[in-house]
Amino acid sequence: MNDIRRTFLWVIFGFSMVLLWDQWQIYNGHKATFFPSPAQVASQATGQSSASAINTPASAANPNAMNGTAAGVPTPIQPSVSNGVMAPPVTANTSSQESVSRKKEIVQITTDVLKVDVDTEGGSVVRLEFLKHVDITRPGQNVILLDNSTERIYMAQTGLISSVPGINFPTHKTPMTPRPGLRALKGDAKTLSLVLESAPQNGLQLIKTYTFKAGSYAIDVVHDIVNTSSQDIPAQLYFQLVRDGNKLAGESAFYSTFTGPAIYTEAKKYQKVEFADVKKKNMDIEKQSSTGYV
After folding, report:
1. 80-88 contact pairs (CB < 8 A, 24+)
2. What's the pTM?
3. Mind listing the pLDDT tens digit for each residue in 112-166?
4. With pLDDT > 90 as the criterion, what percentage of the chain qualifies?
């Protein structure tokens, strides 16, 4: 009788371990190994059915296709109409359409401690290398903080978003033009600036200015929003870090290290910023200034 009970308990223990492992995979952003959810199965079936995909309306396949929202742009906050300010009409933007055909390029900035790649598509920081820190997992190579390669995706992006559906402003996908200037910090120079500007789109132009300082790992970023129209335009500035879910080189397959934003100060040293804290801070910011007029 005791042997039967012991066997039964081992079966329960083994099944529990399978369930825990399955949930651990999902928690780390991987597909379920043993028990895929109905949503996953449905998505796989949809991907295999080419006939149904061809007949799918654009609004169902891509909800953003109806309102013109760019891919990857955060959902706008719906503001309350005040002071009788009317939203600008949706108009075709010839200058922005022409700029799409421009070939994007990478502008590389080099200081004494950093090497930074800025993509003219949206003015995003797509690669950041520490020149004085060696990567212990890759001998002979420096530490790469941000990257956009086949091995890893981790980028910093900003842009503008409209509170009115159907109106698009310059985003992280909008082509931008870099102004002429130095690309390396040399000699006795203490600062170096990179200025990128977009074409006006629906009455707004975005100008990004990155300022690099000698001996500093901090990069100052200034966003100038130029209203080229004759009326107030509701717009919001968004910031986002885009990354994949892949493990870093040298990381164990049996456990995961902390991946997310962190803050270091002399008073409190290293502090992790949990997702709940970030979400709460974003909500507080949105409540304080849900709408901005330019």
Report:
1. 80/290, 80/291, 82/291, 85/231, 85/232, 85/234, 85/293, 86/231, 87/163, 87/164, 87/167, 87/233, 87/234, 88/164, 88/167, 88/202, 88/203, 88/229, 88/231, 88/233
2. 0.61
3. 999 999 999 999 999 999 999 999 888 899 999 999 998 889 999 999 998 888 8
4. 39
Question: For residue 67, which phi and psi values (nearest 5 degrees)?
Answer: -105, 0
* Residue 66, both tokens: 């109806």
Tell me the residue length of the chain. 294
Closest CA to 67 of 168, 144, 152: 168
Q: Which of 20-34, 93-107, 116-130, 143-157 has the highest mean pLDDT?
A: 116-130
CA atoms within 13 A on the CB side of 17: 6
- Which residue(s) pair with 154 in the sheet? 147, 243
Residues contacting residue 261 through CB under 8 Å, at least 6 positions apart: 241, 272, 273, 278
Sorted by sequence, the CB contacts under 8 Å of residue 151 that are 6+ apart come out as 246, 249
Work out whether the CA dihedral 76, 78, 81, 83 comes out positive or negative: negative
Return d(Cα 214, Cα 132) in angstroms, integer: 13
Banded model confidence at residue 14, pLDDT cuts 50, 70, 90 = confident
